[in-house]
Every structure is written in C-alpha cells, then in structure tokens.
Design a protein that fits this description.
The protein is α/β, with parallel strands linked by helices. Among the domains are: 86 residues, no CATH class; 154 residues, Lambda Exonuclease, Chain A (Alpha-Beta Complex), CATH 3.90.320. It is built from 15 helices and eight strands. The strands form two sheets. Strands 1, 4, 5, 6, 7 and 8 form a six-stranded mixed beta sheet that branches. Strand 7 and strand 8 form a beta hairpin. The protein starts with 12 loop residues before the first helix and ends in a 6-residue tail after the last helix.
Length: 351
C-alpha cells in the first residue's frame, strides 16, 4: 500500500495504521463532497476521512448557502445551527480576558464535568488570576474593584454569547439580513415555490420533504453512497419525483453552468438521482414515476431561478458518476491514496 506523503505531521506511524484499520473495518458512506475530495486529492481525502484530520473551512458564500437552506427549509433549526455575532463587543483587553476565561471554561466542561459553574460572576477567582497575568487594573486597591471592571452588563452579555456560539456557525447581521431577504424572494417567486412543492395540495396525495437523507449500499462498491436532498416532491397526479437542490452561487446566475463543471455539481445531481431510484422507484407504488432534477440557484445579486436538468444530460452525468465511482473503488481496494487515479494507473500522463 502506498503511503500518502501529504499526511498530518502530528500522527505517528502506529497511530496512522490503527486509524486505517478502524476506517476500513467499518462501513463508509461516500457523499458527493467525499467523492469530490477524493477526485481532487486522494491524499486530502485520506487525511480528512481516514485520519480524521478535519480541515473544513467555510467561506462567506458557503455560510450564506447554509443559512438560506436553514431559513427556507428548516427554520426551526436556526438556533441549533447558527448564532448571530455580538453587536456590542467589549474593548480589546476585557475581550481578551473573557476569551481566555472561556477557554478555561471549555476545559473544565471537558475534563471536570462536576464543575457546574456557568455564570461570569462564578469565576471571580479565575478572573482575578487572569487580570494579574495581564497586568490589568492592578493599580486598583481591591479585588472587588477589579472585578467590578469585568463583571458588567456588556461583559456578561458577551460571555453568554461565547457560550451560545459553541459548535454553531457565527453569522454577522448583514449576512443574516441578506439570507432573510433571499428566502422572502424565493417565497415570492412562483416559478421556484411551485417546483419545490409549496403550492401543492396535500389532498392530491402530494408529498413534500426537506433535508431528506438517502443511503444506498451495493455489492459493486466497498462503500455506501449517501446524500441529503434539499427538497423532494412526489406528485402522484403527474407521476413525477422532483429533486431540487438549492445552490448559493458566488457568481451571477448566467455563469452557473461554469460552476457545475468547476465544482462537479453533476456528480451530486447524479448521486441524488441514483439514490432516489434506489429508495423510491424500487417501490411498487412509484415504479412508473419519473425523476426530474433541478438546481434552484441564488446568486449574489439576489437573482433566483430553477434550472432543470434534461434526461439526456442526466444520463450523461450518470455515466460519469459510474466512471468516478469505479475510480473510488480502486483507491479503496488498493488503499492507495498517493495520487489521483489517472496518475496511479499510468506510468506518466501525456497531454
């Protein structure tokens, strides 16, 4: 087995081998993002999934996309996934102290769960110690006077904000207001709302689901396939299953075709198509139904439109998916993540 050269330096050989055995001993679900990472750089895939060295970085466009998804499809989850950034931020020295104290608070939660302190005033001893280390407010005569400088309404509010932001995505108010405006415009755009099933009458038997997780295992692959479909609408009257994927584009909507190629969104569309085939078209009640896939695209200028993928184009993408999954199988079966597939099977690549 080839050992990827691009390995996190803080892991020993024995730990790496242990993580490999753990990874390959249990079922793995390959998503679009995982497949895309594997095609782009098998070594990065290896670090991320095999070694667990996560390196995900979310840019503004990704955060906007996630936020729009949440506010449109699952608004009840906003407080679980996001927190608005603090507007009244303390000055530098108190903010540094509060951040240091918060790191101490997190360590206590991790290593000393019986410590139930939550409120800022309950950490007065730690505050005094940090003030001394920072040489802050030491000209004041008493610890009470020093604590009065820290335990203020503004600082208590910021402390509560630090606690609320744990494991959640922080969004600024401009981003939040933009996302809210986009969601409102989507709801005011009949062409979009119609394909997403918001106008459908449940009495007609229409089923609309958001954030649907679908999984498929096959003997053809040493892994399963997984996808989270943004919006799925089953319409018995037209015998169609609409699969809608909401995309926040960083470019104008007319350039989205370029984004499909650059980000390999065609693989995501094909994976979703295969999953819907497997889960729904295998059922007797849906055997004659047709799958219709659309991207619902939002650009930075708040231009919003659905883009339908033709049957011919989808078949082309499905063929590409089969080819790329075969390449993924090669990486898994050989456990070789040194280079992309074409460089592994050829002595050299000729242009």
């Amino acid at each position: 087995m080839a050992t990827p050269k691009f390995i996190a330096p803080d892991i020993s050989f024995s730990d790496r081998m242990q993580k490999e055995e753990e990874f390959f001993s249990r079922p793995f679900l390959l998503s679009y993002s995982g497949l895309n990472r594997l095609l782009y750089s098998p070594a990065l895939f290896y670090n991320h999934y095999v070694l667990g060295q996560r390196d995900d970085v979310e840019d503004r466009n990704m955060v906007e996309g996630k936020l729009i998804h949440c506010l449109l499809l699952n608004p009840e989850n906003f407080d679980k996934e996001f927190v608005l950034s603090a507007q009244d931020i303390p000055s530098d020295n108190p903010r540094q102290l509060l951040q240091t104290l918060f790191n101490h608070y997190k360590e206590l939660k991790q290593h000393n769960p019986e410590d139930t302190r939550e409120e800022l005033h309950e950490f007065s001893g730690a505050i005094i110690d940090i003030l001394s280390d920072m040489n802050l407010y030491q000209s004041l005569k008493t610890d009470t006077q020093r604590l009065d400088k820290i335990i203020t309404e503004k600082h208590v509010s910021y402390w509560d904000y630090l606690k609320q932001s744990q494991n959640r995505t922080i969004v600024d108010h401009d981003t939040y207001n933009f996302a809210k405006s986009v969601v409102q415009k989507i709801k005011d755009t009949p062409a979009v709302i119609d394909v997403m099933g918001f106008f459908e009458d449940p009495l007609r038997g229409v089923i609309k689901q958001n954030e649907v997780e679908l999984v498929k295992f096959s003997d053809n692959y040493p892994f399963g396939i997984r996808g989270f479909i943004d919006n799925l609408v089953i319409d018995p009257s037209t015998k169609t299953i609409k699969v809608n994927d909401l995309k926040k584009s960083s470019k104008d909507i007319s350039s989205f075709k370029d984004s499909i190629e650059y980000y390999r969104y065609y693989l995501q569309a094909a994976i979703y198509h295969r999953l819907v085939e497997h889960v729904y078209l295998s059922r007797p009640e849906y055997k004659d139904f047709k799958i219709v896939f659309r991207f619902v695209v939002v650009d930075p200028y708040m231009q919003i439109a659905p883009i339908r993928v033709s049957d011919e184009k989808m078949q082309e993408w499905l063929n590409i998916l089969d080819e790329k999954l075969a390449q993924a199988v090669h990486h898994f079966e050989t456990r070789d993540f040194e280079l992309p597939y074409e460089f592994l099977i050829n002595t050299e690549v000729v242009l």
